[in-house]
């Protein structure tokens, strides 16, 4: 049997019931998509944020190559550090007692979730969190555990070793393969769920979640005649089974890395459906919709070649248009060599930076002009792949408002019902002309 959980998911207390008519009015004036309010902005009043998660601090310190990220509105940690106040990743060998089996067959921390001492894992993980984060941390807290997946059926290919190890564990207890599957899934759930809840208890303001969840498994373009990019129905059903994970998460971090081998004509569809699945799952958060922050790269997967402008549209642009809260740009130490720093700066100044500045400014302008600054612009028709949030494409006709919590109506100009059994609707004073003619007032509070 899996260990007894040490932490319990937070439950919202039910509020008192108000008048039926007032409740009906509240529902009628709710978020435009009918699926709850939009997650709050990550960075102040910026509806769409681009976050730098590349260890390039050495470019300035060792080689004198500065990267003017702030000039383009790109969010980074202070000092260019890989882990900091805005984003921190917890990797398998530096966070708790994560069980895995290395490619050489070396077993770490028992190898499978069933063999991990949960209390010892949580104690170690708590030490690791306190070492890196302050209790007031309000950034992105990403757990990167990729060696196995929590559902038995998704451990295929090289991950079959975890099935075999679980079956061996069951044989040691004179039980059959069905116990192996059930015990693996229960222990995996307990380990992942309790790890997130621990992080949220120690740093409640952080956006805790697992990298690459949810996944879509739509990388089968070479195996089908007419590739659509859609997620496999079986994988969507499996994502539905992971409701416990979405309930414990504070954010979702799907991957939209582009394989270089993926034909250019198929890349937007590939990313589009991965994002659509994450946004579908986001509605299953315990306390409302979860922010979706997609992980992208500056280069193609397993390639040093930087993304072409069209592929920046397919990744960053598509994320903004569909209503994601932001994108994380990830990279490894290869970007911090002397020659890499110089080429990275050229790419940033010539291509990446101007595009990011355009998209983030467009998202901000659309929010102010269409949503009174109280909502995020999203595509009216998600499948309209040609509609992107670019400054040159105003007046934003292909987009609608998805209002933040506390605001309602087609243009997010009405106060939402609040206060338990009391309902209050008020028309917000329209300051749109002034907002467009002069700098806007204090933005809504974000995470950064």
TrEMBL record:
Any one of the GO BP annotations:
hyaluronan catabolic process
Its EC number(s):
3.2.1.35
Keywords in alphabetical order, please.
Disulfide bond, Glycosidase, Hydrolase, Signal
Record-linked InterPro entries: Aldolase_TIM, EGF, GH, Hyaluronidase
In the UniProt record, the signal sequence range is: 1-34
* Residues annotated as domain EGF-like: 401-412
Q: Name one GO molecular function term.
A: hyalurononglucosaminidase activity
Family in the record = Belongs to the glycosyl hydrolase 56 family.
Q: What is this protein called?
A: Hyaluronidase
Organism encoding this protein: Cairina moschata (Muscovy duck)
**Source species taxonomy:** Eukaryota, Metazoa, Chordata, Craniata, Vertebrata
């Amino acid at each position: 049997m899996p260990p007894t959980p040490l932490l319990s998911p937070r439950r919202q207390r039910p509020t008192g019931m108000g008048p039926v008519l007032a409740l009906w009015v509240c529902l009628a004036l709710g978020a435009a998509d009918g699926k709850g309010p939009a997650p709050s902005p990550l960075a102040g009043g910026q509806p769409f944020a681009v976050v730098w998660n590349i260890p390039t601090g050495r470019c300035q310190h060792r080689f004198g190559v500065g990267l003017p990220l702030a000039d383009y509105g790109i969010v980074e940690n202070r000092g260019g550090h890989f882990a900091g106040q805005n984003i921190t990743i917890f990797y398998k060998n530096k966070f708790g007692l994560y069980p895995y089996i290395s490619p050489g067959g070396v077993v770490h921390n028992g190898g499978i979730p069933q063999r991990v001492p949960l209390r010892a894992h949580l104690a170690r993980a708590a030490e690791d969190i306190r070492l890196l984060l302050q209790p007031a941390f309000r950034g992105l807290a990403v757990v990167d555990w990729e060696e196995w997946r929590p559902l038995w059926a998704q451990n295929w290919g090289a991950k079959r070793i975890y099935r075999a190890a679980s079956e061996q564990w069951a044989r040691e207890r004179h039980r059959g393969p069905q116990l192996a599957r059930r015990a693996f899934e229960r222990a995996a759930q307990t380990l992942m769920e309790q790890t997130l809840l621990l992080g949220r208890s120690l740093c409640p303001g952080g956006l805790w979640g697992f990298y690459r969840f949810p996944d879509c498994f739509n990388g089968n373009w070479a195996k089908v005649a007419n590739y659509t990019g859609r997620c496999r129905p079986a994988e969507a059903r499996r994502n539905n089974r992971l409701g416990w994970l979405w309930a414990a998460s504070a954010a979702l971090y799907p991957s939209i890395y582009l394989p270089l081998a993926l034909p250019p004509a198929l890349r937007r569809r590939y990313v589009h459906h991965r994002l659509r699945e994450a946004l579908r799952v986001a509605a299953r958060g315990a306390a409302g919709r979860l922010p979706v922050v997609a992980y992208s790269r500056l280069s193609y997967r397993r390639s040093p070649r930087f993304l072409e402008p069209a592929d920046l549209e397919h990744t960053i642009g598509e994320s903004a248009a569909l209503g994601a809260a932001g994108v994380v740009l990830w990279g490894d130490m290869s970007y911090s060599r002397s020659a890499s720093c110089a080429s990275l700066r050229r790419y940033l100044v010539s291509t990446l930076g101007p595009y990011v500045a355009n998209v983030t400014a467009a998202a901000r302008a659309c929010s102010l002009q269409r949503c009174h600054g109280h909502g995020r612009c999203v595509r009216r028709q998600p499948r309209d792949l040609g509609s992107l949030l670019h400054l040159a494409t105003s007046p934003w006709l292909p987009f609608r408002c998805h209002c933040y919590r506390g605001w309602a109506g087609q243009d997010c100009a009405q106060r939402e019902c609040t206060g338990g059994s009391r309902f209050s609707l008020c028309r917000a004073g329209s300051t749109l002309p002034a907002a467009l003619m002069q700098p806007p007032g204090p933005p809504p509070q974000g995470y950064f």
